[in-house]
Specification:
Radius of gyration: 22 Å
Helix content: 25-40%
Number of helices: 9
Largest sheet: 9 strands, mixed
Shape: elongated
CATH class of the largest domain: Alpha Beta
CATH superfamily of the largest domain: Spore Coat Polysaccharide Biosynthesis Protein SpsA, Chain A
Strand content: 25-35%
CATH architecture of the largest domain: Alpha-Beta Complex
Order of helices and strands: EEEHEHEHHEHEEEHEHHEHEEEEEEEEEE
């Protein structure tokens, strides 16, 4: 029985990426951006993943067509986030559980944040719950509008902000948890009365509040995690952040990385306890390294390489030639 769904928005073209490939398939440390979002949802006990596709849809569908928990929905015209979710109507109507709504170009999203969002939603018995971010420079993000008591009054997109609203530092990184019937009711009432002429999902909050539903926000997303990827420079920044996380996880599990800034390890790699990774080592793909190994310096391990326990390896390793 499905208890929780997630709608993941992955239809945009992103002209700033200057690419013929679906934006969400661009890789961060060896894995597509979308894959990080999918896995974070699964670890947060999401039963069904509804991926909204548009530009490059065939590529995304081909990549994940074998996943039983994924349903693909096409947004033929990009008319805004509200329209994208409305395209999922047939998969959400009649469902009375929780629906998360997330963006597919946020690879730095953490499972822990989703669990905090869900927990807050339940404890507050709210109709809609947001996870928000505090940013010193909030440019480009929708601002969270609260009253004098701290109650959420809605979200105003950057292009529609007044001058006083532009200085608000609490922003919307687009992490939502909805009671699905409230979501469906609000979506039917959204209109494109804004600077872009689009159907904003954020308007669903205003509609829900006006209808007497409870909307709350929890400041649970760090400024670093909130970053979406809209161009190649942001892709590079996200990759560096993710690489740091990957290496920190390995070091916490008992792997020594002598010089982290001069080491690159694929997110799919597995490394055993008490192995030492020397500087200028590059590990790419689904590499298996055993325990008590010494790898590098200047080692290059290709996809599918399998290193047994206790091996000392340097210069170059190619599993196909061994």
């Amino acid at each position: 029985m499905v208890k929780r769904k997630a709608v993941i928005l992955a239809a945009g073209q992103s002209t700033r990426m200057n690419t013929r490939q679906s934006k969400v398939l661009h890789e961060v440390c060896g894995r597509p951006m979308l894959e990080y979002v999918l896995d974070a949802c699964r670890r947060a006990d999401v039963d069904q993943l509804i991926v909204v596709v548009g530009y490059g849809r065939e590529q995304v569908i081909e990549r994940y067509n074998g996943c039983d928990d994924i349903v693909f929905v096409e947004q033929a015209e990009q008319k805004g986030t509200g329209h994208a979710v409305l395209c999922c109507k047939e998969h959400l109507e009649g469902f009375d559980g929780e629906t998360l709504i997330l963006c597919g170009d946020t690879p730095l999203l953490r499972t822990e944040t989703l669990k905090t969002l869900i927990t807050k939603h339940k404890s507050e018995a709210s109709a809609i719950t947001l996870a928000t971010t505090i940013m010193d420079n909030p440019k480009g993000y929708g601002r969270i509008i609260r009253d004098e008591y701290g109650n959420v009054q809605g979200i105003v997109e950057e292009n529609d902000c007044t001058d006083p609203q532009r200085i608000i530092k609490e922003v919307n990184p687009a992490y939502y948890c909805f009671n699905t019937p409230v979501l469906m009711e609000a979506l039917e009432k959204i209109t494109p009365d804004n600077a872009k002429g689009e159907y904003y999902l954020t308007d669903a909050l205003h509609i829900a509040i006006a209808s007497g539903h409870k909307v709350v926000a929890v400041t649970a997303v760090s400024a670093e995690d909130a970053m979406g990827v809209n161009d190649r420079n942001q892709l590079s920044i996200a990759s560096k952040i993710m690489q740091q996380r990957i290496q920190e996880n390995f070091m916490a599990s008992g792997v020594t990385i002598v010089d982290p800034p001069n080491t690159w390890i694929d997110s799919r790699a597995k490394i055993g306890q008490d192995t030492i990774i020397e500087p200028f080592t590059y590990i790419h793909g689904e590499v298996m390294i055993g325990s008590n190994c010494r790898v590098g310096p200047f080692a290059y391990l290709r996809d599918k390489a399998n290193i047994a326990d206790g091996v000392e390896l340097d210069v170059f390793y190619n599993n196909k030639d061994s």
